[in-house]
Amino acid sequence: MTCYDRRDLGLLLLRLGTGGVLAAHGAQKLFGWFGGGGIEGTGQFMESVGYRPGKASATASGLAEWGGGILLALGLATPAAGAAAAGAMTGAAAVHAPNGFFAQEGGYEYAATLGLAATGIAVSGPGRLSVDHAIGHVLDRGWMVPAALGVAAAGTALVVGTRNRRVRRAAQDAGGGGQEALFEE
């Protein structure tokens, strides 16, 4: 009989909690579950904060959160799952950054915490209480961690950078109105 240790149990709990929260947020975006806006409503919101096209942005972020969250909870394809979730949370943090750190004030604290937890799971691995372990880590090789995080970082930098330039341009066109100017478009 295999004996699991505290590390395995801790990683299981971290994966279930982080993955569950991410999957629920993705389900709001994709399906409108749990009071979410679905693709249509989320797409409109994405447009309003500078992510265009809105529906494509809603679909991409929804899939990264929902799919990444489910895969993290299962401990399957852990490097890719963690990287996808971290990329989505970086995009969310960019929207909340002008409000400071604390979530109470609309800041990026929550998105940063989820993104760092997802990254930590990708780096540490899922533990022995995971699908990756059960299938011999065929989707969780050491080289996959930097590859997945690197691809996600490059893609996220491109998307967030484009969005940030759009926000700055809108603020300049509106006479320095900041991010609020996006809501007037």
Q: Topology of this structure?
A:
Elements: H1 6-31, H2 38-48, H3 54-74, H4 78-96, H5 109-124, H6 131-134, H7 144-173
Q: Could you please describe the fold and organization of this structure?
A:
- This is DoxX family membrane protein.
- The chain crosses the membrane at residues 70-95, 143-161.
- It is a single chain.
- The chain is 69% helix and 0% strand.
- Residues 181-185 have low confidence and may be disordered.
- The protein is mainly α and 185 residues long.
- The chain has one domain (6-184).
- It has seven helices and no strands.
Number of helices: 7
Which structural class is indicated by helix and strand composition?
Answer: mainly alpha
Q: Globular, elongated, flat, extended or rod-shaped: what is the shape?
A: elongated
Low-confidence stretches: 181-185
Number of domains: 1
* SSE order, one letter for each helix or strand: HHHHHHH
Helical percent range?
A: 55-70%
Average residue pLDDT: 93
Largest sheet: none
The CA-CA distance between the termini, in Å, is 62 Å
Provide a brief overview of the structure:
Helix content is 69%, strand content 0%. The chain has helices at 6-31, 38-48, 54-74, 78-96, 109-124, 131-134, 144-173.
Keywords, separated by commas or semicolons:
single chain, 185 residues, 69% helix, elongated, DoxX
